[in-house]
Amino acid sequence: MASRTDDHLQTLREMRSRAVLGGGTKRIEQQHARGKFTARERLSLLLDEGSFQEFGALATHQVNAFGLDKQRFPGDGIVTGFGKVSGRRVAVFAQDFTVLGGSFSEVQAQKISRIQDLALESGIPIIGLNDSGGARIQEGVRSLAAYGEVFVRNVMASGVIPQISVILGPCAGGAVYSPALTDFVIMAADSTMFLTGPDVIKAVTGEEVTAQSLGGADVHTSRSGVAHLSADTEVAGLSLAKLLLSYLPQNNNEDAPQLTPDDPPSRMDESLNTLIPNDENQPYDIRDAITAIFDVDSFLEIQPRFAANAVVGFARLEGHSVGIVANQPACMAGALDIDASDKIARFIRICDAFNIPLVTFVDCPGFLPGTEQEYGGVIRHGAKIIYAYCEATVPKISIVTRKAMGGAYVAMGSRQMRIDLAFAWPTAQIAVMGAEPAVRVLYRAEVKNAADPAARQAELVAAYREEFFNPYRAADLGQIDEVIEPRETRPRLARALEILRTKVQQNPPKKHGLSPT
Amino acid sequence: MSDLAWGLQMTVLGMGLVFALLTLLWGLLTLMQRLDRQPAAAALPDEAQAAAALAATPLSAASTATPTVQGLDAGLMAAILVATLAHRAARRREAAPAMRRSAPGSQLHTSRWVGAGRVRQNHSWQRRGR
Q1: How many CB pairs under 8 A join A and B?
Q2: Are the CB atoms for A227 and A193 separated by under 8 Å?
Q3: Taking the alpha carbons of A286, A291, A295, A301 in that order, is the dihedral positive or negative?
Q4: Residue A403 and residue A423: Cα distance in Å, rounded?
Q5: Which structural domains are found in chain A, ordered by start?
Q6: Which residues in chain B touch residue A254, judged by CB atoms under 8 angstroms apart?
Q7: CB contact under 8 A, B113 and A502
Q8: H-type helices in A136-175, by residue range?
């Protein structure tokens, strides 16, 4: 005869089995038929084997309206807990689409909030796997209030612990704000993110659009900039989250993991000396310089398809995480525009929050001119870069590779932006503006009155270039600390960052600054 | 005197038994070793011989023969090597524990200067009068 304890154990085991099944076998099969994994399968792919510890597996909603009393599932459509990624503690939550379409409920919010609180108190990163049809309509204002509970914790954790969102299905309505408040958004497979869906858009504006063309990964990684990375499959998306985490610390008091160096810091890549084309108007790919300078196979570009005229990303130098900001001469000659400014400023602030040193490569002819940019507020967007650089207290090093003109020179890591060390390659051109426009402004009358205006203009342009299109005038004035051979960049950076590793700088006490928006 | 004789008898008998068993065990092990080696020896030719045979074979014939390393197909060995290196590179990219210089979450690798500095950075706002 079974004892009373055995009965209790049996009950618990049955409840746990039900929780593991989520919305049931049929729903799981449907999820698989769509080529998607369940929440638990995703977590097992993300976390180290056997490291997951679940909390709240038996929580269910207490709402009876609209037939919800007949649809109670242990866990209520979300799996939350702690686990390890590459041996590092992380908090995780994964929405379970098999339970009522993963709809966001009061219980879901309670479970996520609990994990967020524990992650913040423990100083560990949090990774959310989103796959939800939106708010649970049957719960009314309860589910709306639930969003708020999560948002406030997203904000409190911002800049304290890394927050990564992986979108693996639909993410619509108010639910999009939680990922948007996190540090990184990765969109995988056929996931979508939008505030208002195609049906609502059609009803309101008459515009016909598909879910993918409205808020698919393509849109958000290339046009809107909402998502930072994308992947073709769920497995690749989860791998990206792991990869991203490897560059980030556990919290804002600690350093990112340092790897045992496997690439000598003294290595010099001769190809760098010939990277800059002889014709100053010829483009080159700054990513070639980045991959040659930093540790082999360590560069992870963030937002590679959004604002391609700027390159930001993480790499490693001597095994240490480094944040890289660069102009991309291969796209729009590296000119800064609204999107590039937003991209750079955001990345600088992420690096500063998580104690990751910044290395800036400057080759920028200036801000992109035009009414579209001015009307769009390129001034306030460009100001974000200046604000972010000035505010950042992490080690900052800049390298002028070619053009550093006007406001863009100042904004992109000049000495006045509290840059710790400024290097320049011999190909650097540091001036207020290009030679031709400068001569037009300075010598308009002289050129006009000359016997041969064209010859006089060419003469003056040559003189201007001789004077300013080199790094030595800036070095004379102390604006450049050292002019270096391009191939020396790696050892120079390694030595500089070694010195600056213990840099501590404090900003004046304030509640918070008022960054341009 | 009879006790001494009995004792010697027992010693000889005991030691004899032990040695006899050891000899039997040695014989068994030798037999097993030979049985075990014979088929393997047939399948795995001596590496030097194999290499010499490979070198002596004309190029056209060598291209059809599959070279072996330690009895394993060379192509398979190369695939294993590539997979191992790829796995190592992936583990390195993800900063796996074996690739790290310090334990995650520990500040043992950093200085007190940095630790104290970060505390100040993160608590820069303090109520006046305290």
Answers
A1: 89
A2: yes
A3: positive
A4: 13
A5: 4-245 (3.90.226.10), 270-428+470-500 (3.90.226.10), 434-468 (no CATH)
A6: 105, 107, 110
A7: yes
A8: 141-157
Query: A436: which 2 tokens?
Result: 């031709």
> Closest by alpha carbon to A111, among A142, A137, A139, A149?
A149
User: Residue A32 and residue A232: Cα distance in Å, rounded?
Assistant: 16
Residues found in chain B: 130
Q: Helix-strand-coil percent breakdown of chain B, rounded to 5? A: 70, 5, 25
| Buried/exposed code over A393-429 (b: 16+ C-beta within 10 A; e: otherwise) | bbbbbbbbbbbbbbbbbbbbbbbebebbbbbbbebbb
Global confidence as pTM: 0.84
Smallest Cβ–Cβ distance between B120 and the set A88, A259, A506 belongs to A506
A89, A258, A262 ranked by CB distance to B102: nearest: A258
User: CA-CA distance, A80 to A94, in Å (whole number)?
Assistant: 6
User: Which residue is listed with tokens 């500040």?
Assistant: B107
Q: Can you tell me the ipTM of this complex?
A: 0.72
Bridge partner residues of A89 (DSSP)? A84
pLDDT, mean of each 10-residue run, chain A (517 residues): 81 86 86 92 95 88 73 85 95 92 87 95 95 79 86 96 96 91 94 92 92 94 96 96 96 91 94 94 96 96 97 96 97 95 97 96 94 95 96 96 91 88 95 86 88 89 87 91 96 96 89 89
Q: Is A54 left (phi over 0), alpha (psi -120 to 50) or beta?
A: beta
